[in-house]
Amino acid sequence: MVIEIRNVQTLDGKKITHAIESKKSQIIEAEGLTMLPALIDPHVHFRVPGAEHKETWETGSKAAIAGGVTTVCDMPNNFPSTSTLERLEAKEKKIQEQLQQSGIPLRYRLYLGANSNHFQEIGKTKQSIAGLKIYMGSSTGDLLLCDLPSLEEAFRIAAQEGVLVAVHAEDEHLIQLNRSKHVERTDAAVHSVIRSPEAAAKSVALAIALAKKHGARLYIVHVSSKEELQLIRAAKREGCTVYAEVAPHHLFMDENAYRSLGTQALVNPPLREKSNCEALWEAISDGTIDTIGTDHAPHTLEEKRRPFGAAPSGFPSIELYLSLLLNAYHEKKISLEQIVSLTHTRPREIFGFPVHSDVVLVDLSKTKQIDDARLHTKAKWSPYTGRILQGWPRYTILDGTVFDLELL
Length: 408
Ligand code: DOR
Ligand code: ZN
Known about the structure:
It is built from 14 helices and 15 strands. By secondary structure, it is of the alpha/beta class. The longest helix is centred in the N-terminal third of the chain and has 18 residues, at 85-102. (4S)-2,6-dioxohexahydropyrimidine-4-carboxylic acid binds at residues 45, 77, 139-140, 168, 267-268, 297, 312-314.
């Protein structure tokens, strides 16, 4: 049996009927819709275990499907952090139960968190994990690896075991130093001063040096500044296996957001001065950026509105980034082919996901305002609320099951 997608537009401008194997026959009249491969989001925080009041895989998988995403890589900064095989297996069990509840068999892979007491776990988990996530600077959760001997050891073992090293690159020592210089400030904007571009670049430089020395494959998550891009370009030119991810908020938001959103605009690494957004768009154009990872990091509104120092960092975004990108396509900032490469092809290649039939059918002409009440994330808010975007997903097809997004 097949799902027959009739009269759908393909990227090369043809109108075709496309068939996908399924357990039940179904016809989708797709006149006016464009077919893209379903998205792979290599960077999400679905908060299980330990912070299920912010998100679960039941709500997270719905938000993913609503955004055209059928595969995610989930981060290990849980409570407790996912830094051993035992914890990975316990987490996996909860995820399975929650996906069962949602009725969405989302494809996923989990990161192992780097912890110097647990380096033996890298070899034990290498077959199943997305990679080893190293927090070189502190963020949500207690994962942190910032002393040189531990970093050397982590890169050495990961390289030896053939495990991808993903780094949150912000130099912890520089962050602490900057914080000590600005203790009197309580406004949210100081966050971008404390977690400076220099702190990010210093950490990226170290990660690249360690990757080169030990022969590790390096994946730099949420690149946010010009300074980092320069280092990554140079490393790529030298033939170093380094991949760069950008998060939507560093493309679509800048420091000005503190004025309207206050502590709600906090994220690590922080929003930057606008010229960095422009540099990131350029880096998409010239191929320096490999992937878009949402860094979907839901926190409740109540938590986000706490005073600076108590409010957590991060935004929910998984169900909106495709629309943000499609809207950017209309603004001639990016091509549809580039969107596919960043959200599907490159993540599939880098993380070694198998080829499958998942697609998302998008309505490029549909214009809609973002409305918190319609979001599926448990957090039920977005830093993009109120924006009017052109280009919205209409159907997501995962493993032969059609999700009509108007009925989700
Ligand atoms: O802003 C962030 N939020 N950055 C991170 O590194 C972690 C994330 C979270 O888990 O809340
Ligand atoms: Zn993250």
